[in-house]
Design brief:
Layout lengths: L1 E5 L4 H12 L3 E5 L13 H5 L4 E4 L8 H22 L3 E7 L9 H14 L5 E6 L6 H7 L1 E2 L2 E4 L3 E2 L4 H12 L7 E5 L4 E2 H11 L6 E3 L22 E2 L4 H7 L1
Parallel strand pairs: 1-2, 1-3, 3-4, 4-5, 5-9, 7-11, 9-12
Antiparallel strand pairs: 6-7, 8-10
Helix pairs in contact: 1-6, 3-4, 5-7
The structure holds NADP nicotinamide-adenine-dinucleotide phosphate.
The site of NADP nicotinamide-adenine-dinucleotide phosphate (NAP) has 26 residues, from helix 1 and strand 4.
Length: about 250
């Protein structure tokens, strides 16, 4: 089947395109660099022609509050309109575990808007909620650093290898629409502060991680379970240590 992957040149998108191709599907990577722009609408009608499913794994080039909100509102509105016009039978989008619990963060307010637009579109859809990717652990250290020290709360954390995320997204794309959220998660639950400490050591980064119950994540307060998926989540197989060893 033809599946258009919006953001198909990105971290997750390129793996989704490769995985679908390996399973005999016609996977088309769509991004500004391939002539498809969801903000302007350029190339959307052409690329969606004949598509059975569209997968949105794009991301905003800027994470500033206003910019990210504008990105997800405009790109999702355009993509939904073109998907409806082209008769696409399944709209799949990748979002984040706990999005609805993270509204204090500008990034997550934008993801909440993206999800609402999809739910209200009337198109058959599946929203995949993934936890943080292993690739995102070092960026967490960076945006949680104050005066050279990383400050993080000791909350539950269940990150996932991008390979496992992409495989799960590809499986959802070729399945029936769930018209709701499908949660996925990493194979192990750990503490956020502890895992970031391990990642820094593995990277030879001398920064200290201070456990701080009041430290915020992307501007949002975290409860014990804010970042982790529920008991029905489909779990990936690749552990953080296996991923570190593979790099
Ligand atoms: N980071 C995490 O831990 C995490 C966890 C759960 C879910 N997610 C979600 O996963 C999704 C994908 O993340 P990622 O890290 O794979 O993203 P990424 O590597 O930054 O890739 C972003 C993709 O979006 C494309 N793009 C940017 N502007 C576009 C536009 N106007 N029109 C069409 N495509 C555009 C980019 O194309 P170019 O290469 O041409 O610029 C690129 O292919 C995001 O929606 C994010 O919310 C992330």
């Amino acid at each position: 089947m033809k599946v258009v992957v919006i953001g198909g040149t990105g971290l997750i998108g390129s793996k989704v395109v490769a995985g679908l191709g390996e399973h005999g599907h016609e996977a088309v990577a769509a991004a500004p660099s391939t002539g498809v722009n969801t903000l302007t609408g350029e190339g959307l009608a052409e690329v969606l022609d004949g598509a059975a499913a569209v997968v949105d794994v794009s991301n905003s080039p800027s994470f500033a509050d206003d910019a990210v909100l504008e990105f997800f509102r405009t790109s999702t509105t355009n993509l939904l309109a073109h998907a409806a016009k082209a008769g696409v039978g399944h709209y799949v989008a990748l979002s984040v575990v706990g999005t609805d619990r993270l509204a204090e963060s500008g990034y997550f307010r934008a993801k909440i808007v993206q999800e609402r637009l999809i739910r209200e579109s009337g198109l058959p859809y599946s929203i995949v909620h993934a936890p943080q990717f292993f690739e995102f652990v070092m960026p967490i250290a960076d945006f949680s650093t104050v005066d050279g020290t990383v400050r993080l709360p000791p909350v539950q954390f269940q990150p996932m290898a991008s390979d496992d995320v992409a495989a799960a997204v590809a499986r959802v794309a070729v399945g029936e629409p769930v018209n709701g959220i499908r949660e996925i998660g990493g194979p192990e639950r750990v503490r956020l502060d502890e895992l970031v400490r391990r990642a820094l050591v593995a990277n030879g980064d001398p920064r200290e991680v201070v456990t701080d119950e009041r430290a915020r994540y992307y501007g949002a307060r975290l409860d014990e379970d804010t970042l982790v998926p529920g008991p029905d989540a489909e779990l990936g197989a690749i552990t953080f240590d296996a991923w570190l060893a593979r790099r």
